[in-house]
Write a structure and sequence with these properties.
alpha/beta, TPR-like_helical_dom_sf, Peripla_BP_I, Rossmann fold, single chain, enzyme regulator activity, signal
Amino acid sequence: MLPSKVVRHKAGRFLPVILAGLILAACSGQGPQTSTVNIQGPVTASSAYYLQQAQQSSDDSKTDWQLLAIRALLKEGKYPEATQQLSQLPQQLSETQQQESLLLKAQLLISQQKTKEAEPLLAQVKTGSLSQDQLARYYSLQIASAQGRPSLSLLRTYIAQEPLLKGTDHQANIDATWQTLTQMSPQEASNLVINADENVLQGWLDLLAVWRANAQDAEMLKSGIKDWQTRYPQNPAAKTLPTQLSQMQNYTKASTSIIALLLPLNGQAQVFANAIQKGFNDAKNGVTAPVAQPAAADATASTQPAAVAGSAADPISAPQQSADTTTQPQSQPESQPESQPESQPAAAAPASNAQIKVYDTSSQPIEQVMQQAQQDGATIVVGPLLKSNVEKVANSQTPLNVLALNEPEKIQNHPNICYFALSPEDEARDAAHHIWDQGKRQPLLLVPRSGLGDRVTNAFAQEWQTLGGSTVMQQRFGSTSELKQGINSGAGISLSGTPVNTVPAEPQGVSIAGLTIPAPQQSTPDVVSTSSGGGVDAVYIVSTQDELQLIKPMIAMRTGSRSNISLYASSRSAQAGAGPDFRLEMDGLQFSDIPLLSGSNPGLMQQTSKSFNNDYSLVRLYAMGMDAWMLANHFNQMRQSPGFTLDGNTGKLSADTDCVINRKLTWNQYRRGEIAPAN
């Protein structure tokens, strides 16, 4: 047993240690402590939580909680609150806090569409001191500040961001990189100057070349991509293909053994249906020239709806039914030509073995026609033509693949339906791209006071804003007699416009690495006019040929002959019978039309125009029929592979994500009495 003195001595030795530990523990629970908040990591809670933590924290950690709260507020779209919290940050920040605050301030500015003000802040960021999460956000901000404009710098930013991402964010990066590449023209892509060590970027450019060389042949494209993956095994796209190319890898050709062609074979729309059917049959038989006179290119052509007469196949409304319409759909194999030609036409491709069954949609409800086509074993439906019937088919949940020859008022995305229409809206969207590509930024639309004018105006304005343009101006004109009164009085057309008030298409924001940047919002400018020194630099005219002959000189009366305003017109004014006097009067004006009527195939154009008595509206519908055959035979590629294109008789054809077929038209210009390609 130890002496009591020894016990007391050892106890005395341990007591200071215990007391010191208790004192330290008490201090740690009451005094300030080093913050363990990670402001360089992801935000996982709500702004309310972070703000509460900031209120309850000491000075050492309060700023970190504030920074996290600001990030959460921005993520939640609460920009005024985020602005207030940013203003309350202390002047003295640590290096880590300073870098985070720069990112947050830049994000707020970009969210407010102030990209120019955000760029200097992003330039101050020291990327070497950022975490991977911060770097991914930094690159997302750089991407957002580019506002979708494809460039070498944007490609490099995507490539730098890619290794930092996982899951859906990584796939989004791959897809966005590919989209940026495909938005570049072949010339722009070939003119890129890259460094010798940029192997990843070189791989992307080579993949683009493979795609462009083989886009028309699915099997060749598959082989080309496989070879590319062998040559660039470390490229991120070799491991994770862009969604578009992945879909094309899994592409299987749609069956076209039995094609149901749904058209109104009686009534007011019969003349249009006959032109489409003839074009469809000629394309099926592999001919490049018409083989017979059209079935109904007679006096009834003069009764066509005004919108159709001027702009090809406007979305056609249901006509009044004829008294002698049949009660059963007409089902017939289209293997026989309508009549024997005097000479053998040139062949564009071997005649197909597909069986075409034609159904008359004017004879009974479209639901019954679709059911009959399905019972007859149809593998794909081409049609119907009338807008009301297209809407019913879109709502029918049919299992058949459908290439509708019109668009419903509201597009519905179905995996088995594509929409192909020759409409004024389609032309207006193409005009927006053409005018934008020519460097014009302040267009004015000169359109009739009618429903046609409303539709063209809305379509152009929505597409213009999608391209990044400001609000479009519009000006309306009345009848031909009103225009004549204006020219007789010397009033002219002043080109004073009012803003187009239209609901834009759903904007696409940027959302990568947990950071969401809304799409740019367009401001509404005041009324401008050339007569008062305004900034209109382009005028898109939608008029008939007779109206255009009055409108162009009336514009010159007010703007003068030296005006630098460029004039553009739709195909509505491009009709047969425009002689040398008209071409001289229109000098300088650019106009759009389908390739067939723009000289892509002179022999076919000449013979087809003759067959339809120089009615260009019917020629355009004939060309639509030819393209409908081609689209039906590439249905799955158009449906499954966004970016897939075909060179058609009605334009360069491509499909958007809803499988609405878009057409890039041919643009020509009147020059010294001749028609030449527009620059």
